[in-house]
Structures are given as structure tokens and as C-alpha cells.
Amino acid sequence: MISSTTMAKRAAPALACIGLLAVWQVASLVLKSDSFPTAIEAIRAIPDILGDRESLINILASLRRMAIGFSIAVLVSMPLGLLMGRSRAVAAFFNPLLMVIYPVPKAALMPIIMLWLGVGDITKTLVIFLGVSLPVIYHSFEGAKAVEEKMLWSGAAMGLSPLQRLVRIVLPAALPEILTGCRTGLVLALITMITSEMIARQSGAGNILFNALDMGQYDTVYAMIIIVGAMGICLDAVFERVRARLVRWSEPQFDLPLSFS
Amino acid sequence: MMSRFLSTNILLGVAPIVLVIALWQGLVSFGVAPAVLLPPPGLVFGRLVQQLETWTFQQEIAATVVRLFAGFAIAVVLGVSIGIAAAASPAMNALVRPIVRVLAPLPKVALYPALLLLLGFGHGSKITLVTADALFPILLSTYYGASTVEQKLIWSAMAAGTPRYEILFKVVLPAAMPAILTGCRIGLVISCIVVFLAEMITSTDGLGHALVTAARTFQAVDMFVPLITISLLGLILNALLGAVRSYLLRGFPEA
Amino acid sequence: MKVVPSRLSEWVRPVTLQQPACAIIEIERVSQVFQTSARKDHLALSDISLTIDEGAFVSILGPSGCGKSTLLYIVGGFVNPSSGAAKMKGQAITGPGPDRGPVFQEFALFPWKTVLGNVMYGPRQQGVRTNEAEAQSRALIEMVGLKGYENFYPKELSGGMKQRVALARTLAYHPEVLLMDEPFGALDAHTRTRLQNDLLNIWERDRKTVLFVTHSVDEAVFLSDKVVMMSKSPGRIRQVIDIDLPRPRRRNELLLDPRYQKYVVDIERMFDESDEAGSPS
């Protein structure tokens, strides 16, 4: 049996969604602007987009690139971050470089990479890879740095080699923090994907958005916003489920995802 | 001992940056990459210095900085006040929590077309986008910091005769300051990134626009210049915030 | 550490001794229930009644989890009892107030304020003008032996020094009752002894009412006029023991005093017996 308070807690995000849509509906009715359709009009346009074969292929292609870019980024960044967290020298080597790269908008590299590699999948995947890497490196680094020294001593006393210690002690101990980084990275992957498509204007979800904007199909613009927003919220919710399962043993995590472009 | 240790660290840290530049130069010098696509570093940095002196480029920087600061400042004010309110009042908490849960993972840049339609192509839409993106990390850290304030600090202040409403400003806000500033640091970098992207997607001025203009005419050198400028801008602002941080948190351990 | 007696009277309102043994705090049938999980309640305090006389040094002694700190928080007005009431000078306690000054085990100093800033906080909050508050606070800091540390931040001080600042910060707003929540619990043995001596020195000059929570039998006997022994689950008063030892107490004399030793041994035996006879939980 679920108590009424937990019910209310579970329903709260859904209620918030409905509330936000209601605010939108009222605002658009009040403003009565051509460029601001009502929420209902926008929702009605969603089946048209998802029913259109070409748009659907476009969106699915975007998602595939995102998945590939995200996976490669995690596979490369996580070991690097862990090594940085356990070795002062490695950290001192990479930290300043990462600090310089940090404020560079990764999606802004799109035009330059396009210049080199063309507008194909490689370019777009590479940009997503770059966007995801930094938070994953950063969180793995912080997680590995915080691993208790005495735990490693115990491991060394049991005869574990440095590599074994990294895989069997540092990795699981830093896992909650790493997964926080992955969660940020996942939302970032989506954002980088959309942004780079908006900038390159070749194909994908971001392109559909701006094409509709250029052609004055405002319903489609807002419908796409809802689709992209829903993708973000769903990806985050699914990942949060996975994360909670993987690190059941750790303290309940407080933070909500920190997403940014 | 300490200084030697530090200088080794600095050497180690400078090494990869030097390596990247050397590799970059090498690629050009050995003809692996044609100079049209990858201009040599000397040319890019020369161009940067030259550009920084011109009035038009300064105008671009100014436009970007104005949007960045305006968006960031609004995000700080909103984020800190909503975060504290959510931590202090159960009613606010019940209202804010689900909304934040929905809006935080939403890719804000997807809202940009709507902002363009509603607020036009000028400063308004870009500042709003910067605020929307920088708001959540600041709000969440503030909320976290404010809701984990040591209970006994509050009790000590109340016993000394502080009225409840003053506790918020005299205890909760200063005690949450480390968390707030961590949020601001993330928010600032996000602001840098977002303002640049917004200008790239559609704008008539600003650093992002400078990059797009250069890309349209395949001026590789001019594409690098705004990128390096925004990176430098980010580093300078980060250092400034670091200075503010170490001043404000001078009493806190591990600051 | 030297304490300046002439200075002390300025900080501490002299206690009127016309009516000896006049109750200042009355705890009447207080119970406290905490909800530990969805359907489980934990009875932290069960039907506690206790009267504390003005100017008395009373220790509440008991094992961890017996609710002794909760009882102190109820007197402080930080926690509302589930039933019953606590009164200060006949008035029901409804919230914290400057008449009851807490000193916590965790020090709870404001990390963003200097030593001087921390001590000045109370007087400033009471509306004392800045110059005056500063002069008073500087003298108090000197009294607790921290002259020269006025502009240090708490993070730069040792645990013992932090607790001295916390005591000065509380004394600065002239509370009538000091509520001390295991104040020396986080300190090493040596610092602890020194602070106990200093606290006694300060107290024996002005006889402010002190409610002192501790789990150390020696500490309770050494400092108090009265020891309230509590047992746990549920938290109850087991026994109240008057400590009839001469004052001023000097540690080196007292430790050799058979009466002191007997109090300590008797109290420890009573706790041991209750452990053996206690419920299996």
C-alpha cells in the first residue's frame, strides 16, 4: 500500500507539467499572438511531426548520433577522470588544459570541424563527444579524489595491484559521483545535439525546429519544443532509475541534474 | 619543498597546452593540414591581438559581455531567492520542487525559437536564454546549501534574540554562501557558453555572430579568433569570481 | 587561565539571593515522541518533571539516546514537547530567548564572523551600540583567555578555543540560565579538564544557573550541585542526587576526597545495575 504522501510526491512532476502547460495555454489566450499558439494547438501538431516519415528518420538519426557520442565519451572520459583523481601528476598535467577548454562552447566548434570533416555523422558525433566529456571527466575526477585512502591501503594489504585497486576499489567507490557526471553528460548530449543541428542546419531535430521557424509554421516550432523537452525529461528520468539501482548502497543523492548547453 | 612541488605542477600543467600548440604548428608546417583549413597558431594569435584593437571587434565583445552579465545577474537574483525560499518554506518547496524537476533537465536551447518569436531577435531573447540556462545550477546549489545549514547555528542566533525573519539574512544566507558561489561558478561558465551559442544561431552582433560570419566566408583564421576570445573571457570571469569567492569565504574552512 | 573577577560582575547580572532555592525553571510532565518511520513512534522522553533552582549548577547525566539533550532543547525553546510544559520563572517557554543561552558540543560558531564578530553578535542583536558592544566583547574575550585572537576566524582556532569563544558569545547577551549541551564532549581529555576548571571559576564567582548535559560521571560530580540521572528507552529520570561537596572546588583536592570518589562510584554502580536489570532492547 502506498501512502497518500508518496502518491502526491510521485504525481507532483506530472502535475507540474500539466500546470506549466496550463500557464502556457492561458498566456497564449491572453496575448493572442500569431507567433504564440496555444498549448493545445502545439500538442495537436505533434502527431503530424512524428507521423511524417522524413522527420521521424531525422529525429531517430539524431538520437543515434547522440547515443554513440555519449557512449564513447563515457568510455574515454571515465578512466581519464579516475586516473586524474588518483594521481597528482596526471591531474596536474590535464587540469589546466581542461580549464582552458571548459568555457569554449563545444557546439561552436561545429563550423570549424565541418570545415575539416564535412557535414557527415562523424562531425556531429564528435561534437557530442566533446560536449559530454568534460562533466564526466570532472565528476570521475572528484569521485576518485574523494575515495578514502585507508580503503586503498586495505586493498594493497590484500595484495591488489594498482590497476586492480583502480578497477575494484576506486571505480565502485566513485560510482555515485561518476553517475552524477553521466547524468549531466546525458542531458548535455541532447543539448549539444540540438544546438549543433541548429547551427549547421543540415538535418536532425534542431533543423526541423528552425525550418519551421523560417517558414512561419509556428505550431510545428512549439510542437518540436515539446518533443525535445519531453526527450530531455524522459532521458533524465530513465537514467535516474538506472542510477538509483546501481548505487542503492550509497547515501541518497540530493542533486537534481545540472543541465546546460 | 612546497614551491618546488608547485613549480613542477605548473610545468606539468603548461606542458599539454604547449604540446597542443606545437602539434597544431606541426600539422601546418609539415603540410598535413592546409593552412586554409588550419591556420598556424602564430597567425591566429597575431590576428587576435590585431582584432582586439579594432573598434568593431570591441563592439562585438561588448555586446556579448552585456548579454552575459545581464542574463547571469538575473539568474543569480532569481536563483538565490527562489532557492532560499524553497528551503525556508514548505509551501514554496512543494511548489518549486516539481517544477524544477521538470524544467531542469529540459534542454533550454530548444526554447530559443520560442523566445525569438516572443521577444524578438534583440537582446531580450538571448538574455532570457542565458538566464534560463544559468538559473538552475544556482537555484539548486542555493537550495542545497540553505537546506543543510547547521541547525545549531540557527538556534544560537535565535537564542541571541534574532527574530525568525532575520534568521534568513543573518544566518541562512551567509551559511549557504559556499554552496551559492559554487552554483554561481557553474552558472557563469554556462552563461559564457550559452550567450555564444545564441549569437551563433541567430544574431547581428556579438562574438558568436563573428564566428558565423567568418564561417560563411571560410575565413579559418577569423573563426578561431572569437572562440579563443570567449575562452579567455571565461577564464578571466572565472578568476574574478574566484577572487570574490576567496574574499567572501575567508572565514570558511576549505575555501 | 586567569579570570579577572572585577570584570566578571559586569557581564553577569548578580543573582538576588533573598530567596534561596527559588525555582527558575520548572519542567512539568514533559514527554517527547519522535516519529522514526512511517508507523513507528519513539518515546524519547517520558513524563519528566524537574525543578531547577536559581543559581544552581545542575547536570543531566545519562547514556546516549536517553533524551537528555532533547530535554535541554525543550528548556531552550528549540523543540516543543509533545506533551507537558517547561516554564521559565513561571512563564511557559514558547521559543528561544536571550534569557536562556545555549552552548553546544559542536560550538556552532558563525564561520563567516571573526571571534570578535561572533561575541558581538548577541549584544548587537539586543540593540547595544557598536562601540559599546565591541568594548564589552573584547573584555569578555579576554576573560575567557583569548586576548589577541579577536580578529581570528573560528577555523583558525583549536577545539578548546572555539568552545571558549562559544561560551563568551553566549555570556555576552547576559542569559540568566546557561544551557550546556555536552559542551566539552568533542575535546581531548587535557583540554576538557582545563575548560571544566575555567567554567567552575567563572561560575563560582557569579552563580548563574547552569543546566549541564553530559554522559561523563566524573564531570557531572565535579561540577554540579545536583545530578539528575536518566535512563533510556523511554527517557526517564532515575534519580536526583545532591552533590554535597564544598566549594570552591579544586580539582587536585577533590580527586583525593573520599566523598567525591564515593559519589562517582555510587553513580557508576547505579548505571551498571540498571544495564543488567534493563530490558533486552
From TrEMBL, chain B:
SUPFAM superfamilies: MetI-like (SSF161098). GO terms for biological process: transmembrane transport. It comes from the Bacteria. Its main location: membrane. The chain crosses the membrane at residues 61-87, 99-121, 167-198, 218-241. One of its GO terms (cellular component) is plasma membrane. It is a multi-pass membrane protein. Residues 61-241 form the ABC transmembrane type-1 domain. Keywords: Cell membrane, Membrane, Transmembrane, Transmembrane helix, Transport. This is ABC transporter permease. The lineage of its organism: Bacteria, Pseudomonadati, Pseudomonadota, Alphaproteobacteria, Hyphomicrobiales.
Automatic annotation (TrEMBL), chain C:
Pfam families: ABC_tran. Residues 25-257 form the ABC transporter domain. SUPFAM superfamilies: P-loop containing nucleoside triphosphate hydrolases (SSF52540). The keyword Nucleotide-binding applies. CDD domains: ABC_NrtD_SsuB_transporters. PROSITE patterns: ABC_TRANSPORTER_1, ABC_TRANSPORTER_2. Keywords: ATP-binding, Nucleotide-binding, Transport. One of its GO terms (molecular function) is ATP hydrolysis activity. It comes from the Bacteria. SMART domains: AAA. InterPro entries: AAA+_ATPase (IPR003593), ABC_transporter-like_ATP-bd (IPR003439), ABC_transporter-like_CS (IPR017871), ABC_transporter_ATP-bind (IPR050166), P-loop_NTPase (IPR027417). Involved in beta-(1-->2)glucan export. Transmembrane domains (TMD) form a pore in the inner membrane and the ATP-binding domain (NBD) is responsible for energy generation. Belongs to the ABC transporter superfamily. This is Nitrate ABC transporter ATP-binding protein. It comes from Bradyrhizobium manausense. The lineage of its organism: Bacteria, Pseudomonadati, Pseudomonadota, Alphaproteobacteria, Hyphomicrobiales.
